[in-house]
Known about the structure:
By secondary structure, this protein is mainly beta. The chain folds into two domains: 4-204, no CATH class; 208-292, no CATH class. The protein is 0% helix and 54% strand. It contains no helices and 25 strands. Strands 1, 4, 5, 8, 11, 14, 15 and 16 form an eight-stranded antiparallel β-sheet that branches. A six-stranded mixed β-sheet has the order 2-12-13-18-17-3, with no helix packed on it. Strand 24 and strand 25 form a beta hairpin. It is globular.
Amino acid sequence: MSRKFVWLVCMVLVCCLGACQLAKEEAPGEGEVSPTSDRMIGVYITVDSPAAAEKTYAEAVTYEEDGHESITFIFEGIPGIAFFHPTVMGAGELDSYMLTIGDREILDGETHIGVIQTEDLPEPREEFEDTPVVDHTEKVTLKATLNPLQEVRLYVNYVYQTSQGDVYMLSGPGYYIGGGEATVSVWETSQDGKYALDLTLKIEKVDLPQQVVFKEMNTEDKVIRTTVITPDNIPDAIALHPQCAYTIVETHSLGDEGTVISRILLDIEEDSYTYKYPGERGFLVSKLISIQHPGE
C-alpha cells in the first residue's frame, strides 16, 4: 500500500475560486447538482485507462504511523493517485472526523472548509435550479499540483461517499498531458444543497530534476558553503553557516536541450524547504527539509 499523506483540516471562510478549464475528452459536469444523494469528496487519478463505469468501492484500511493509528481508503487492485476528503465514521456524530487523503504525487496540497450562503453559489445561477434552498452550504475546497515527468494520458475519476461512510469511485474524463500547464476544476453540489466541493488540480509536465544546490552566501556575496541534494542523498535538515547572510537555491533539471538551471532566493525567515524529486511512478514527489538557523 502506498503511503498516504494526511493534512489537518483548518476551519476558514473561503471565497469561490475560478480556474482555467483543461481541454478533455468529455465534459465532467462541473457546476452541476450531483445526480445522487451521496457527496462527491474528490478524485482518483488513473494512468492510461479510466476506472470502471460502475461503482468501485474503496476499502477502509487501518495502519500505524509515528505511533498513532490512522485510517485510509484504498481502491484495491486499481493503481492510481488519491486526492479526496472523506469522513471517518465513528460510533456517534461527535466521534466522526474528516481528513484529506493524498498520495505522494499530490504536491502543495491544501484543504479548506467553510460555509457559504446560498446566494453566493457560482454564476450562472441557472445551473443550480434543482438545488434546494438552504440557509447555508458547507463548502470543502481542495487544491493541489500534479507534476508528470513525461507525456501521459490521465483519467480523473470522481470519488463519492455515502451517508453510511462507504467510499466509491465512478469513471471520469480523460486528459492528454503534453507540454505546458493546465488546470482541472470541479464544482459539485450535493442533492440536498447542504454540501459543495470545489476542487482545483493543477497539472504541469516538468523537466526531470537532477539535483538541487544550496549556496550559502556571506555579506560580501561570496559562497561560503555549498550543499548538493540528490534523490539518493536527501538530508533531514540543513544547518546554515553562522556567517550565512542569504541562501541561493539552484535546481538543475534535464530539459530537451540539455541541463536547465533555475534559481530562487530562499526567504531568510524560512524554516523548511520542500525538495521535489522523481518518484517511482513517473511523477514528482517531495520531502520537507528542515532549515536550521544559527543559534537554534
